[in-house]
Amino acid sequence: MNLDILCEQTVAIAKQAGEFIRKERNQFNSSSIEVKGLHNFVSYVDKGSEQLIVDGLRKILPQAGFIAEEGTGTPNQSGLNWVIDPLDGTTNFIHSLPPFAVSIALMENNKLLLGVIYEVGQNECFWATATGNAYMDGKRISVSDKAKISDSLIATGFPYYDYDRIKPFFATMEHFMRHSHGLRRLGSAATDLAYVACGRFEAFYEYSLQPWDVAAGALIVERAGGVVTDFSGGSNHIFGKEIVAANSNAYKDFQEIIANFMLK
């Protein structure tokens, strides 16, 4: 399995899905929105994008299973799985508000092999393989070199339904409001991670996330020179529903602040 060729093919599929999303955005009607859960929406665009992606990926790697947000395909209990968010930032999309993105990762058991994020609004594509560097539109990218939280711009995301940890989460927000360049909430975790990878953000954290939200972005950040963990500094950030991602200089202080508030 040649990861470089597979990544190139995955990039092409992500861009095809992005073109479908862009086209549908111009004629989208809010009456087609379905409610999956509290503040959790889906439309025919999500489903159509996912089907397009799954059909394309099946052709290039027939033996792989699928862990996909809208449930298309079935996962392998071991071995290769594609991890897909066909439209990360659906709420943004239905309000015509960027960013929203396509996110595709390939895992073998729990090891990430490649990740691709295509942010539709800016027409920017980010990718990396486990054995290579991280890129945006063919240009190598790297995380920022800022070491101080006071010099950092930090991204986060808000939970849609899991409010059990909301008080300590709000405390982290207050801390970073007071002690950093500022906080941003874009509404697309995949895009947040891509922006950490290319140095637009110094760090990102969020809880109540799913594997398809973070798998591709986690690998891209790591291959761009960053560090990605769960809140405790451990490795359960893909399936553990919490993530910290930062450049390697700021990571230690950033993770310790998150742990101090969120793990008490």
Written account of the structure:
- The chain is an alpha+beta fold and 264 residues long.
- The mean pLDDT is 95.
- The longest helix is centred in the first third of the chain and has 23 residues, at 3-25.
- The protein has two domains: 3-140, Fructose-1,6-Bisphosphatase, Chain A, domain 1 (2-Layer Sandwich), CATH 3.30.540; 149-262, D-Maltodextrin-Binding Protein, domain 2.
- Helices cover 35% and strands 27% of the residues.
- The chain has seven helices and 14 strands.
- A seven-stranded mixed beta sheet has the order 3-4-5-6-7-8-9, sandwiched between helices.
- The chain starts with a helix and ends with a helix.
In short:
The chain has 264 residues and is of the alpha+beta class. Helix content is 35%, strand content 27%.
**Rg (C-alpha, Å):** 17 Å
- The fraction of residues assigned to DSSP E strands is 25-35%
CATH topology of the largest domain: Fructose-1,6-Bisphosphatase, Chain A, domain 1
Q: Which structural category do the helix and sheet elements fall into?
A: alpha+beta
Overall mean pLDDT stands at 95
- Tell me the series of helices and strands, N- to C-terminal: HEEHEEHEEEEEEHEHEHEEH
Using the alpha-carbon principal axes, give the shape.
Answer: globular
Classified by CATH, the class of the largest domain is Alpha Beta
